[in-house]
Amino acid sequence: MIFCGGNMSVLDNILTRRDQLRMSLDDWDRYNSFPRPTSESLLAIEYFRSIDTPFEIIEVIASEAISSNHTSNEFVLSMLVQSASHSPLEVDFGHGKFLRGNAPGLFVFGDLRQPHSLQGIGPFNSIQLSLDVDVLQDRIRELTGHTNISLDRLHAQAFEDDILKAMVGQLMGLCRSGYHREQTAGPSRVDKALDQIGIRLANLAKLDVPELTDSDKLQPISIRRVLEYIHTYFDQKLSRNQLAAIAQVTPSHFSRLFHSSVGVAPKQYILRLRIREARRLLKDCPDLAITDISQRLGFIDTPHFSREFQRQTGVSPAAYRRHV
User: Fold this and answer.
1) C-alpha angle with apex 221: 218 to 223, nearest 5 degrees?
2) pLDDT in tens, 258-297
3) pLDDT over 90 at 72, yes or no
4) What SMART domains has UniProt attached to this entry (predicted)?
5) More confident call, 209 vs 98
6) Structural domain includes residue 212
7) Backbone dihedral angles phi then psi of residue 63, each to the nearest 5 degrees
8) pLDDT of residue 3
9) pLDDT for the residue numbered 195
């Protein structure tokens, strides 16, 4: 990371968000079911539950991964909002271990009927949606007409999907507006949002891609080394050959294995780190020229930097600086 006079960071953003989530942890039913070391890792929460439709959605800040031996008849869909961790999260939902990187928007989808574990140091800010297995499966069958839809493929890797991200955000927005308590003769807005999420999960699970095996993923120690190297040198030119050598795989297979392990392509992962650092520099270093930021972060030139920044944030670097 490039440092200057300011100290704003993802960690600061997470701590700010922690102060905004004001619901009592003690009033959350699941909180008391966690063993003490696990419950102490929870820092803040906002939660919504519907009686009519068995689901719960929460936004949570945790200092480390929340893992429990407790099983339940639920699926859990977890979307990373932001993470200040420099190491990936190790996840196992009973279909083999995999790693979830720290890029915002990454999903993991687990079956809590199986023994499961999550290991990693945060802090993490995430949104988690818990759904009754039988209700979700029955609803997907009813909506799609398919009788044998398996969601198992989604339990074995982290993944990214902008449509699903928007749907989860919409559901959380509806709940924050009180629509999870809405009484209607027909399906409520929350019911419709849940139906959309169920259909999207079914579509993602049915994607026509080869099933992954252990050999189709980077080993945890390899991906950890690669991610540590990327986080250290993301402002420099990083070639596929370099990263493949660190992972100890051939360059021709590296990009596919990285994507299968982390959920995004290596080029996109590096770009997100650069844009995140650019946002920090634009905010905290007002005297640092945009051209200098572009050069420091390894972009080809300033126009290239400006195009990528606007593509990722929706505004130009100059406009972002004016409004932060």
Assistant:
1) 45
2) 887 887 789 989 999 999 999 999 999 989 999 999 999 9
3) no
4) HTH_ARAC
5) 98
6) no
7) -80, -20
8) 37
9) 86
Looking at residues 299-318, what average pLDDT do you find? 91
Verify that 43 and 188 share a domain, yes or no: yes
Measure CA 195 to chain center. Answer: 21
pLDDT at 172: 92
| Residue 211 resides in a domain | no
Q: Quick: pLDDT tens for 81-105.
A: 999 888 888 998 888 888 888 889 9
User: Do both 295 and 146 map to the same domain?
Assistant: no
pLDDT tens-digit map of 26-60: 777 666 666 555 657 888 889 888 766 678 899 99
d(CA 207, CA 253): 21
Distance CA 308, CA 310 (A): 5
Task: Outline where the chain has alpha helix (H).
Answer: 10-20, 36-39, 133-144, 162-176, 189-205, 220-233, 240-247, 251-262, 266-284, 290-296, 302-313, 317-323
Taking the model in full, what pTM does it have? 0.62
Q: DSSP for 284-301, please give it.
A: H-TTS-HHHHHHHTT-SS
Last residue of one domain, picked from the residues 149, 180, 205: 205
| Kind and range of the H or E run holding 90 | strand 89-92
The SS3 assignment for 194 reads helix
Is the domain of 105 the same as that of 138?
yes
Q: Are 86 and 228 in contact (CB under 8 A)?
A: yes
By C-alpha distance, which of 65, 98, 61, 99 is closest to 82? Answer: 61
Same domain, 58 and 156: yes
Is residue 73 a part of any domain in this protein?
Answer: yes
Residue where a domain terminates, one of 178, 205, 232: 205
- Mark whether 26 and 125 lie in a shared domain: yes
Find the domain containing 265 and state its range.
217-323
> Is 144 within 8 Å of 104 (Cβ atoms)?
no
The reply to whether 47 and 165 lie within a common domain is yes
Contact 279, 321 (CB under 8 A): no
CB 41 within 8 A of CB 118: no
